[in-house]
Design goal:
The chain has 217 residues and is mostly beta strands. The protein has helices at 42-45, 138-144; strands at 5-9, 19-21, 23-30, 33-40, 59-66, 69-79, 91-97, 104-109, 128-133, 151-152, 162-169, 172-177, 180-185, 195-201, 205-216.
């Protein structure tokens, strides 16, 4: 059996050795705990969609290596001031981030599409999203896979702590939210590589991260 290494970070401050990629990251008090508050920088938010934001390398890059294993984190997200009308409080995990952030995979939640808010139309089934940078953003996945296999319904909402768990093995991904499975993929879109882990956010989002655990095989 392959031995695993476990890294735990409370995220009550910016971990030593971290770097900020088009985001800010600072400790903040929220819902009775200290967490790391992450938002896009003003420069990124004012940039070009598809270049500076929207499924781009916008994350706190952590000094944690990962290829296969389990990533767990608590995340609370909500709309930031001045958020565009299409913002959904996007926040999640980037993983297998290669040097210079040229490639990575990500799983993020859209709490404003959460089932408990009873959103209209297809938004109900878009509570979370997988994508692989740079080739496979959400728009291409949605166009080429109209069955929505890279998105899923989730019983979540904004301004609440969400327990997010990713189980990654080669091109297989299993996602748990608050202890229940919400997505299972056996055909993710990037070849497995060893990289780093990041706390990812997108446009119009104020996100808080706490209690990160990474079990890397």
């Amino acid at each position: 059996m392959t031995e695993s290494s476990v890294v735990t970070l409370p995220l009550d401050e910016l971990p030593a050795g971290s770097s900020l990629k088009s985001v800010t990251g600072r400790p903040s008090e929220i819902e009775g705990r200290t967490a790391l508050r992450v938002e896009l920088t003003n420069e990124a938010s004012a940039g070009v969609p598809g270049v500076d934001y929207i499924d781009q390398p916008t994350f706190v890059l952590l000094p944690v290596e990962f290829e296969n294993g389990v990533i767990e984190v608590d995340v609370l997200s909500r709309l930031a001031a001045g958020a565009p009308d299409y913002a959904r409080a996007f926040a999640g995990i980037a993983y297998r981030i290669t040097d210079d952030s040229r490639r990575f995979e990500s799983l993020y939640v859209r709490p404003l599409n959460g089932a408990r808010l009873n959103p209209p139309g297809p938004r109900m089934n878009r509570g979370l999203q997988y994508f692989a940078y740079p080739e496979w953003d959400f728009e291409r996945l949605r166009e080429e896979y109209p069955d929505g296999r890279y998105e899923a319904k989730a019983d979540i909402g904004p301004d609440e702590w969400i327990q997010l768990r990713l189980e990654v093995q080669d091109r297989n991904l299993r996602v748990m939210i608050n202890g229940g499975q919400v997505l299972s993929l056996d055909g993710t879109k990037s070849a497995p590589v060893r990289g780093q882990v990041g706390l990812w956010v997108d446009i119009g989002t104020e996100a808080f991260f706490s209690n990160l655990s990474v079990s890397a095989l």
